[in-house]
């Protein structure tokens, strides 16, 4: 029985990654521990019988019997200790697996939602106040991602550790897939927000210059309009007509100057 049980314990696989698989391993470990407990009376009987025999046989034979008893007891204790240690390792693995799965799924959901938001923002506006608001909103996304960086790195490291610890576990493929998705979302969000920040900053500079020039031109046009309205009706005397022509030439010159500024 000892040899068979030792072989079974040696062939036990390392803790799995998925909680369901770990639970099955815990059940198997519990069965082996139960078997060891059930054989405890047999070990006790073996010790009792052996001790009685040692008293009846010669010293050399007694020493051999004692050595056999010590070996069997050591093997029994080692089996029990090994399975107890495995039981603790499985409990820890179950806790870590649940926590890791929750953290990984939570981070994927959070980054997925943020990616959807940054990819569905409205186009760059034309008016400076609106562009400033868009810059503020984009910065909020940047700040949100920055706050998650520490958690992101922790989840990424945990996933890498899981993959390195059990590379042959079928669940590793799923972890790798989710890790790749996580890193893809992270890079996408950072790229999109960085590009949008640059576009908004450039648009703000152009829009501010445009609206400033437009206001200047509109002001000049208003003055020209007022000047035209204030013009006297066409005169009859040559000197008066000449003055009116000069005034109109000044208005035309100013108008051309404003057109040049607005280009």
Automatic annotation (TrEMBL):
Positions with biased composition (Basic and acidic residues): 239-263
Parts forming coiled coils: none
Alphabetic keyword roster: Calcium, Cytoplasm, Cytoskeleton
Name of one Pfam family that matches: Spectrin
Subcellular location field: Cell membrane; Cytoplasm
InterPro entries: KCMF1/Dystrophin, Spectrin/alpha-actinin, Spectrin_repeat
GO terms (BP aspect): synaptic signaling
Region annotation (Disordered) ranges: 232-263
Membrane topology: Peripheral membrane protein
GO terms under cellular component: cytoplasm; plasma membrane; synapse
Official protein name in the record: Microtubule-actin cross-linking factor 1 isoform x2
Organism: Triatoma infestans
